[in-house]
Amino acid sequence: MCQGVFTASVPDVRREGATGDGGQSVRRSEEAEEVEVTEKDSEGVNLEGLLRELVSAAQLYQSAAGVRARLTPTELAVLVILRARPRLAGQLAVATQLTTGAITRVLDGLERRGYVVRVPDPDDRRRVVVTAVVERLTALDTLFGPMSAAAAGIQATFTPAEQRVIARFLTATGQMLRDQTDLLRGGAGATAAPVTLEAPLGVTRHARLHLAGGLRRLTILDGGPDLPTDRLYRASFSTVPTIEVVTQADETDVRIRFGRRQRAPWRGHGGDSTLTLSPRVDWTVDVRGGADQLLVDVPGLPLRSFSLTGGVQDLRLRLGTPREPARIALTGGAERLRLERPAGVPVRPRLRGGASRVVIDGEDLGSQGSGGRFQASGRGRGGYELALTGGVTNLEIATLGPSPRARAG
């Protein structure tokens, strides 16, 4: 079903009101219509059967398109991923659930036929950045053009309210299929109840957190009343990872790794996984292997630095005022990145790969090219340096607002 990425841009289903009331009448009408859509004919519809037919038809189409383009389904899937932005080879291996050797062979074939190019990562030449060749993707657009036009015609027959209902269903179904694929590939790894893990604080005043294996959905919190004062961290996972705590004279290393068979539980089938860190020590956080959804809600945590390698779909950072200049580094690109910090704390972004849209404290700066440097409010040498390598679709820097924890409670 990867061909959908090669379709034309989907029309915006939001309608601005032309009634003089800012569109409120239209929105109220659409909300009422949406309720009617969700309730009407809800009985007697075999959605599971229709979904099976849709998946089967998509597989047949993918097979036929692959034959015409002389590409395997895996090669098509890789090109779909690369269409959004360049990726690290390791990130592609995680996304396609292939071994390092297998993804290397796939990339070898795509590079020989001119679909991709591979170059060393400028920040770490041991890693390889893979970029799709635009001209070859344009040829694929031509191949998928008739399907794109037909899909757009079908979409036009539905009202905006109906489209929103369909979008919610497809989004939830897509996530379900990814979860079930992980379970089939990884075996039964999830436990019936969350596993709570923790470690003593000790006497060190600096800690390093290493997370590896590819994250799906994780929330990192600063310790509140629920975290005992003598605990370094407390974690709630739906499977047991490999954890190693190494205590030295001046710092403590916390290394948490999930292997290939343990990745699926990070999706949090029964709720998000959480990791709570003690605010009584300075922290350095390093995430390797990429992430889907990651919330770092630590305004009360002394954070020295945060790094993420392998790309991220949705990252939200809620940070406090650092004691000294702190560095935030992302390598591998990002779809959505929102950084919140207290008013007056400067943020100095540095982009390698550009950004499709940048919003700073409510001001929309539009797109920014590679190499762009600008500062988000505040003065002085403190604050945060934000280094982004691999491009970002939506970058927002904002003043620290209410915690999602407070709203959830």
UniProtKB/TrEMBL annotation:
Residues 47-175 form the HTH marR-type domain. InterPro entries: HTH_MarR-typ, MarR/SlyA-like, WH-like_DNA-bd_sf, WH_DNA-bd_sf. Residues 13-35 are annotated as: Disordered. Transmembrane segments: none annotated. GO terms for molecular function: DNA-binding transcription factor activity. GO terms for biological process: response to stress. Pfam families: MarR_2. Gene3D superfamilies: Winged helix-like DNA-binding domain superfamily/Winged helix DNA-binding domain. This is MarR family transcriptional regulator.
